[in-house]
Amino acid sequence: MIGFIRRFNMISLRSASILLILLLAVLVGCTGEATNPILTSPGNLSHRSERYGSGHNIWSSWTIIFEEDTLSVSIISERQAGAHFDVTSLVLPPSCEGCFEITVNSYDPATKILDIDVTLKNPTGLDGRDVRGIFFTDDPGRTIVNADDWTSLWDIPDGQDINPFRAFAKSIPCRVFAPSETYTENYLIKMTHWGAVHYAVDASWPDNCEEPYEISGFTQEIIREDEGSSGAVSVTVSDWLEDTDEVIISAPEITGTEFIELAQVADSTWSVEITNSTGASSGIYPASIKASSEGDGALALYDKVEIEISETHPVLNVLELTPPWLNFTPVGVFVDGNYLYTAGSQNGLHLWDISDPGDPIWVTRVEVEPQVYDVYIENGLAYAIKGGRFDIFDVDPPGEINYLGSLEGFSQYMDIQNGYLFEGGLKIWDIDPWQTAHLVRTVDLELESCVMPTYVTAADGMAYVVVYDQIIGDGGMRIVHADPPETAWLAATVDYYRSVGKIDAENGVGCLTLGDTAIIFDSATGSTITNIGMPASKFGVEIIDGYAYISGTIPAIDPLRDSVQVIDLHVPEEAEIINTIWCGAMLSIARSGNYVYVSSNDEGLYVFEYVPPAEPVLQTIIPSPATRWLAAGDGIAATGNDITVAIADATMPSGPEFISSLKPVQTEHWLWSAAIEGNYLYIAGNYLHIIDISDPGNPILVNSVNTMGDITAIDVSDGYACIVGQSYGFEIIDVDPPEIAYSVGSLELEYRGEDVVVQEDVAYMIDYHYYDSGEFHVIDISDPGSPEIMRTVGNAPGDPIYSTYCLDLFDDYAYVGMGGGATADFLLRIIDISNPADAYILNEIELSQNPDVFCISSGYMFLEWYDPVLENGIKILDLSSPTDPQEVGFFKADRFLSTIAVGGPYLYTASQHGLSIFQLW
Q1: Any residues with CB less than 8 A from the CB of 627 and at least 6 apart, and which?
Q2: On the chain, which terminus has fewer CB atoms closer than 10 Å, C or N?
Q3: Among residues 97, 116, 98, 117, which one has the least CA distance to residue 107?
């Protein structure tokens, strides 16, 4: 029982003559012997209405018995003294055919919900108003779950103080239930037990009810489980006389008090701030609302609602769930037994288990600073190389990586073989053990002053140094006999008329790239054995098990995708290309048995099953996009770089994985932004690419739509994609169905579009100009073929010039990140869009950092932030009060995030380290 409910005493029958008059009136209306209700005694009826105050009448009341086995219905009239104005004999057959009917639609044993339709016919010759079919609850909890509202009228013994009802004729003006009219309402009954159900029909006459007739539109802001957390609740109270004078809410489990009064904030809207004073934990809590009017006596209208208490904000609960291998950007690869090591130019040294060589499984990662370019492993040690430094790791036992130390001070180019380090100079260092590393030999390469070394590789007891003439541009190589290293000497000098790419050698045979030619040479003397013309310009070369793998691009076939030509060197004089492996730009290659692992620039790790000279078969791609854009849905995230799309399955955030990747089109150079809507991923560049991700493991490109080009932002809603771009335009694409998507309308803009968000028939966008003020535009897209700017909000004359960076919406407000004022200030501009055609700046909040990456979800803004104390991360702002957003949390994340998105309960961030996933709530 809620404490504020005052039981409405049942109206007692004061005069038998009054009842007789009413029965006669009802009888006349039901039998049809009089067609004009005005002929009844108006004086007596007026007296009756006045006598009983509110004018409420009970048309009839029944006991309804539902049979669980057969779902049949029995209706029994109530004739006890407590049932007032009992005219059951007049509203049931044969007296009134069709006046009260019940249809059983279904029953769900799992939810215990009985679905019925109740049909009423007005049995009188009078207009009934605010007719209510009241379901009388009982203490065991049986009730209706789709009540319009609740009332204390006609309460029965042993029941609850208030009872739920469905209102009839709600769509009719003044809710008039005219004579002989029929209306039906659906009831969903929670059958906690079976047995008798009491039901009555109440009608107001001759006017509408004096108390409020409807409580609706309950809303609440987020309220957390932290004690003291608060949020506003509001409700709409409808009253024919517009004299509601009190609305109160009771939620003692949350507030600790019996009730709280709401304040009238608009004609029919009432609101109050609810505080979690009891520290109620997260969950759903029942609450009751009572609304009463002036002069309605003991009557009131009630409603039962639910208030949700949310978990503590993520500042207390954030957990990074994704290991940072998702952008391992492999440059160097090295196979050691059942393990594969990849050296990433942006993200350290990674270890993979290749017990199943066709399906590498990521094991762990270690940071390497500065970022590593290559890796070499021997005798249980891993050497992670970059420039003039390398880090040493203990990798014994296999599957573990432990940092031991670092050595630096070397030249930029180096290679390691058999415990010796070869500098491009050429200096040779004994690094076994590394703690006592020392120079053992310096070899004079007999270089002229304008010739410099650019690359060194050691193989087969020899060292090969690529050299370059800075004046004439020619290249060559120096071959050093380095076995033993302590007595290394210059064995051969070979000059070429063009610059040399890379060199490798094995078993007496060497291979180097020279423009569009591969030269096969004697590894000891440098003399040419044969030349092989290549389909295009080449650069990288590695020799493994008698095969040379040479990477490069074939512009005539695919200018954006590199290939690897495989040359059989087993008979050097008859060397020939036996296969082409299509992949991205190869940076390094390693082979283990019948599998080849190729590190590809910005694309990841390609795994091929390969038995020369058989055709290589791609087994898997572990994508590694240098993330530029991000789109998130519930349990899925898509990210990528300029040309590659990678899709991650995040349904199990503790173990997410990239499950697929693709390139939308080979001619697309730049992909800038993306959105997920339903089962489709929309990626924007020069084209709008639409990808079916209903099966995320097998994404299918269904269409690529030619657009205005250089798209910087996209939002998709209700079958339309709105895009803005550097081409100074706004464009609408009809994407329903996606297979025949086409441009339907556009606008020219003064400056390039920076961001866009669609809400119903309105698109909100910001533009950007480096030397001028960015503006906020409100665009009417109700006619997609003719979009029209209906409002522009910018800086006032004389204000500092700010550029706009990003945009998002929450409730009736747009939030715009801005910066670049006269003093390089940064702002969060809040714009009221409750009336889009009259949008205006509500507030501006000064920030100390550039707000160029943020997103909004569940009333919170997640803003990329840098703080010298808290380090790189994401600041969390509570937007409950748009005039005064409050910082409520901070958690660490990568600096320079490309973008942030929220899907379901997870926050996704994309950066140079790839995709990271954080649990929010």
Answers
A1: 327, 639, 640, 641, 898, 910, 911, 912, 914, 915
A2: N
A3: 116
The token duo for 648 is: 């991650």
Nearest-angstrom CA–CA distance, 667 and 160: 71
Condensed to tens digits (0 to 9), the pLDDT of residues 513-530 reads 887 889 999 999 999 999
327 vs 725, higher pLDDT: 725
Measured distance CA(602)–CA(583) in Å, rounded: 11
C-alpha distances (whole Å) from 323 to each of 351, 864, 883 are 12, 20, 38
Pair 819, 826: CB distance under 8 Å: yes
Question: Of 791, 739, 725, which is closest to residue 764 (Cα–Cα)?
Answer: 791
Q: State how far the Cα of 376 lies from the Cα of 106, in Å rounded to an integer.
A: 70
Query: What mean pLDDT is predicted for residues 616-633?
Result: 83
What does the pLDDT look like over 524-555, one tens digit per residue?
999 999 999 877 666 678 999 999 998 876 66
> One-letter amino acid identity for 702?
V
- Asked if the peptide bond before residue 784 counts as cis, ω within 30 degrees of 0, the response is no
- Residue 193: strand, helix, or coil: coil
> In this prediction, what percent of the chain has a pLDDT beyond 70?
84
Task: Give the number of other CB atoms < 10 A from CB of residue 85.
Answer: 18
Q: How far is CA 626 from CA 112, 320, 549, in A?
A: 53, 20, 25
Is pLDDT above 60 for 79? Answer: no
Q: What are phi and psi of 28, to 5 degrees?
A: -60, -45
List, in sequence order, every residue forming a beta bridge with 700; answer none if it has no partner. 692
Burial class of residue 584 (count of CB atoms within 10 Å of its CB; 0-12, 13-18, 19+): buried
Is the distance from CB of 403 to CB of 349 less than 8 angstroms? Answer: no
Which residue ranges make up each domain of the chain?
Answer: 16-204, 214-312
AA letter at 869:
V
Alpha-carbon gap, residue 648 to 156, rounded angstroms: 59
Please give the structure tokens belonging to residue 266: 């608009």
- Number of H helices and number of E strands within the chain? 4, 76
Which tokens belong to 176?
């008039």
Span 436-468, pLDDT tens digits: 999 999 999 999 889 999 889 999 899 999 999
CB 372 within 8 A of CB 425: no
Per-residue pLDDT at 664 exceeds 80 = no
Cα–Cα distance for residue pair 899/306, rounded to 1 Å? 35
Q: Edge-to-edge, what's the strand order for the sheet holding 680-684?
A: 673-677, 680-684, 687-692, 700-706
Give the C-alpha separation, 235 to 247, whole Å: 9
Pair 301, 292: CB distance under 8 Å: yes
Residue with tokens 């048309």, as numbered in its chain = 59
Apex CA 523: angle with CA 518 and CA 526, to 5°? Answer: 70
Tokens of 564: 């690897």
> CA–CA separation, 425 vs 465, rounded Å?
8
Say whether domain 16-204 belongs to CATH 2.60.40.10.
yes
pLDDT for the residue numbered 797: 66
**Is the pLDDT at 206 greater than 80, yes or no?**
yes
Q: Does residue 48 sit in helix, strand or coil?
A: helix
Q: How far is CA 623 from CA 601, 747, 752, in A?
A: 10, 37, 32
737 CB burial (10 A radius; 0-12, 13-18, 19+): exposed
Return the amino acid letter for 542: E
Is the pLDDT higher at 784 or at 99?
A: 784
> Which pLDDT score is estimated for 453?
92
Asked if pLDDT for residue 894 goes beyond 80, the answer is no
Same CATH topology for 16-204 and 214-312: the answer is yes
- Helix/strand/coil for 32: coil
- For tokens 């009259």, what's the residue? 838
Query: Before 93, cis peptide (omega within 30)?
Result: no
Of 346, 324, 340, the residue nearest 598 (C-alpha): 340
Give the Cβ contact number of residue 104 at 10 Å: 15
The CATH architecture to which 214-312 belongs is Sandwich (2.60)
